[in-house]
Design goal:
25% strand; two-stranded parallel sheet; alpha/beta; 4 strands
Length: 85
């Protein structure tokens, strides 16, 4: 999961409480089946599947290049989750 840096901790905690998998946090958690990262931590890495959370916030927080990084990390599946309007 790639999210704005401001949401990484909150999303990590919600996943820990909500799923029966080990959830990694940031670069230290890359060995976990599920990891929550900001785009710049994910830069240069590839994953089979990526969930990008709140792309507008990612671009606002770290610039449009960070959104490009987020969208180009998956090799097979990309899911985009936007906040409710």
């Amino acid at each position: 999961m790639i999210a704005p840096a401001a949401l990484v901790g909150q999303l990590h905690d919600a996943l820990v409480d909500g799923i029966d998998e080990r959830v990694g946090y940031g670069a230290q958690g890359l060995g976990a089946p599920v990891s929550v990262l900001d785009p710049w931590t994910a830069k240069g890495l590839e994953f089979d599947s990526v969930v990008v959370v709140d792309p507008d916030a990612i671009a606002s927080e770290a610039g449009p290049g960070s959104l490009y990084v987020a969208f180009t990390r998956p090799t097979r599946r990309l899911v985009v989750v936007e906040p409710a309007a």
